[in-house]
Amino acid sequence: MKVLLLGDASNYHRALATGLSGLGHDVTVASDGSRWMDTARDIDLSRRPGKLGGALLWLKLNTVLASDLRGYDVVQLVSPSFVQLRPQRLIKLLRRLKRDNGAVYLTALGTDSHLVHNLLGPRPALAYSEWHNEHGPSAWSATPAAERDQWLAPELADYTDEFYSIVDGAVTALYEYHRIAEVETPQLPIAYGGIPILIPDARLRQRDFAAPLTVMMPAHRGREAEKGADVLRELFMRLDSDLPGRLRLWQPENVPYSQFTSLLDRADIVVDQLYSYTPATTALLTMARGAVAVTGGEEDFYRFIGEPTLRPIINPDPRNIEDTYNNISRLLAEPSELARMAAQAPEFVARHNSADVVARRFEKFWLR
Questions:
Q1: Which of 62, 132, 190, 290 is deepest in the core (most CB within 10 A)?
Q2: pTM for the structure as a whole
Q3: Which residue(s) pair with 28 in the sheet?
């Protein structure tokens, strides 16, 4: 099949393209490279700042790139905001993509108006998230960084409703997005895809976890509170103080993707997300390299993917940070347990998230 992957986030579509190409599909990635991440793409959709940047991108899409965005059997859109344009222009582009191609699907891998509406509503599909906790909306959800009012404003909410009425279905990247899609768009065909990971070719570095541990705490600048990185950073700084000489903390920020993957090779433990149920891209890249990830690893997720035995993740609980502290403190005193988790991690990624495994799920959904 001829496939267009339109937009990208944390190299998702670029990695998926590799898996699909291995299955014999002709794949094109058109994106802005996830902005500062600068991920690889075949067609560049970067936008300059300001209103002029939007006008120039719109002009480019309607002239130079008009013929490059038609004639595909399948188009996968990275989100309802698949290009950096306002909703009134996105809807025109979406209709054109639908007219000029075969099926048009969503890759559900990020925030949209449906997700925010659900998680701030009276019956959220998840027990907790960055948007809410057991007491109601989270403190972060009320901050300007959350952009709650923009997500729920009629312009974007109405566009999102229309978007879901046009696309032919959705493939979800995480358990969380799948649960919300089941509730918010029950009429829409959906399938779980997972996050595609390119397995490193190099031999994995052996870690004994007995020496001082290199703990990498990468940050997406401006999104620390959203991901819970601020809370986890404080927790590990406390651990470092309470366990002198045991940890070597390291906090890189906004590292381009090509450099980021090489940095992961140097870490024993990578601290990723607090509010997730599941390992996302950074955690899975970590695990593929035989290191231990601190991120979502809830039993709901393991049941969802049908994984009965592998438990390679340190799962922090945002509802009880003190228990999380005690659990990690115990693990740091048990190098053999960390080594066991590290040994299981590459097997977990190969079984559930290698690019070819995820690509086959997409292919099965398209051909259903």
A1: 290
A2: 0.95
A3: 4
